[in-house]
Design brief:
It is built from 2 helices and no strands. By secondary structure, it is an all-alpha fold. Helix 1 runs antiparallel to helix 2. The mean pLDDT is 87.
Length: 90
C-alpha cells in the first residue's frame, strides 16, 4: 500500500497504528461471512454434515479475505481518518 494517494495526496496512515481498528471491522466482515454462508448451507442443502459447513465457510472466507482487508481499511479511513469523496478527483 503506498504511503499517500497519488492523485489527491491523502495520507493513508494518519498516525502510527491507525489500522489496528480495521482489524475489528475485518472481524465483523468475517463473522458476517461465516453466518451468511452457514445459514445458506443449512437451508439450501438441508442440514448437511459438519465437513460441508467447514469447507464452504473456509473456501468463501479465503476467497473474500482480500475484499475484507481492503474494505475494512477503507471504512476505517472514512469513519475515523477524515477521508471524504471528492468528485474533482475522478
Amino acid at each position: 500500500m503506498p504511503p499517500a494517494c497519488p492523485v489527491c495526496n491523502l495520507n493513508y496512515e494518519p498516525e502510527p497504528g491507525f489500522y489496528w481498528g480495521a482489524m475489528y471491522i475485518s472481524f465483523m466482515f468475517s463473522t458476517a461471512i461465516v453466518l451468511v454462508i452457514g445459514f445458506a448451507v443449512y437451508y439450501l442443502l438441508d442440514d448437511p454434515d459438519t465437513w460441508v459447513y467447514i469447507l464452504a465457510v473456509a473456501t468463501v472466507s479465503l476467497v473474500l479475505t482480500p475484499w475484507s482487508l481492503r474494505y475494512s481499511r477503507t471504512l476505517m479511513l472514512y469513519l475515523f481518518g477524515g477521508a471524504e469523496y471528492d468528485e474533482r478527483y475522478k
